[in-house]
Amino acid sequence: MNSSNARGPDRQRSGATPVDDTADGFPARLWQALGRHRPPGLPTPRTWRSPLRGPWLTSVFGSVLLVSLPVVIVTGLLDYIAYGPQFGQAIPADVGWLHLPYFDWPTRPSWLFRLTEGLHVGLGIILVPVVLAKLWSVLPRLFAWPPARSIADVLERVSLLMLVGGIVFEMATGVLNIQYDYLFGFSFYTAHYYGAWVFIAGFLTHVFVKFPRMVRGLRSRSLRRELRTSRADTRPEPLDADGLVAASPTPATLSRRGALALVGGGSLLVAALTVGQTLGGFTRQAALLVPRGRSNGAGPHDFPVNRTAVAASIDPASTGATWRLRLTGGTDAVTLDRTMLARMHQHTASLPIACVEGWSTTQSWTGVRLRDLAALAGVPEPVSAQVISLERGGPFGRATLQGNQVAHPDSLLALRVNGADLSPDHGYPARVIVPALPGVHNTKWVESIEFRS
Question: 307-452: which CATH number, 3.90.420.10, 3.40.50.150, 3.60.10.10, 1.25.40.10?
Answer without folding.
Answer: 3.90.420.10
